[in-house]
Amino acid sequence: MQDIYRNTNQDLAALSDWFRANQLSVNASKTKYIIFGNDNAIGNNLEIDGVPLERVHTTKFSGIATSSM
Fold this sequence. Notes:
two-stranded parallel sheet, 6 strands
C-alpha cells in the first residue's frame, strides 16, 4: 500500500510542476482526497508542495453527495 502513496505523491509533484509551468496554482489547503473501497488501514500521507492533503469519507461533486462507505 505504501507503493501506492509513494507513486501518487510523485504524480502529485509532477502535477504541481505542470501547474507552475503553466502559471496555474493549486490551493493545497483546500484539496481533499477520498478512497473508494473498504481499506480503512490507509494513513493520511498524500501531499502537494509539502502540504498534507486531508482524507475525507464524503464529498460533493457538482452538488451530488458521494460517500466512500
